[in-house]
Predict the 3D structure of the following.
Amino acid sequence: MKISELFSYLNDDRVRRIIAQVSLAGFVVFCFWWLITNTSQNLDQLNKTIGFDFLFQNAGFQIAPTLGTWLFSYEVGSSTYWDIYLIGIINTLLIAVLGIFAATIIGFLIGIMRLSNNLIFRSFATVYIEVLRNIPLLLQLFFWYFTVLRSLPDKRGKIDLIPGAISVNLEGLFLPYPIWHSGAGFAGIVLLVATIATMFMRRKSKNRQLLTGHPLPIWRITATIFAAAILMILVSVGIPMEWSQPTFIETGSVIKRGFDKTTAILVIPEMLAVWFALTLYTAAFIAENVRSGILAVSKGQAEAASSLGLSSGQTLRLVVIPQALRVIVPPLTSQYLNLTKNSSLAVAIAYPELVSIFAGTAMNQVGKEIEMFFMMMMVYLTFSLLTSAFMNWFNHRSKLAER
């Protein structure tokens, strides 16, 4: 090939793009090869090997009672590090789901309040947002744990939030748990059928509104369906469940005084502190997203809705918020991802989430840093990708249809 022909090929944009892409791919492969080779050499010098056999070894440390320890019946000395990994995932997922749910509700309320004409509501929302989003999350976590929850009565005392049902002290929050009777299965089937019937009627109401402009009285229909379902359950099997009553022992030896943990659900204070901090901190950012989304909707939309006789609440719920979602949802996804990843800060107060028990205590005992950090990164990556996929689907459903 002549030099002139070679230069003619190099002058072709397509050839240059192919060469650039091949060069970049080769550089990436070289970087991975160098990283793997360097890591292997360092491990050989330390007499370490890579493997996941440690997951089936018995774990020898205690974990605070949580949903994860209850689901997997964790016992010191008999449960494995794989159980600890799953417990960390469950506890992380629990705090993320609860935090997303609560932060979304609070964030929407605060964001709407900041646009209110009521001076008290608007001032409260402004102070809430400006204070909470400008204080580091770790400091808020310490505030709830060390300042608020650590000031509660010790195990021999209590504060009744709902007398005889919900109480709190230094050990945590004590909640009643459901006690199911023999007719619980039948009751569940009846309620499931009622829910399906309600969803069918809501769809029928929406179709009728599109055709005639007159929806069905869906709230009255829903109330009637569930009232009939509950009446059927009561007549057929009676009350299918009851709630336990947390037992507080006030007399006897000092050691035995306090709540009987077999009669209640215990939510440890570490979980409460993490939930409060993540929820209130993230809600401040969600509130600003909601405010910007509402302001992005033209005022003419609200004026048109008002001219049709809709109330301010109906205008906000039926006209403004649906159009504002196209602006709210993308940054809202980022806040959900941040909340999930920020749950790793719970290691500072020893809440048994994934980083605390798997990258903390378990890794100190096993010493498999590469494998354990890889497993944790895969968990957070999976949570983030699933959240992004769901929010992208929701964003596609809520976006305005082009005409």
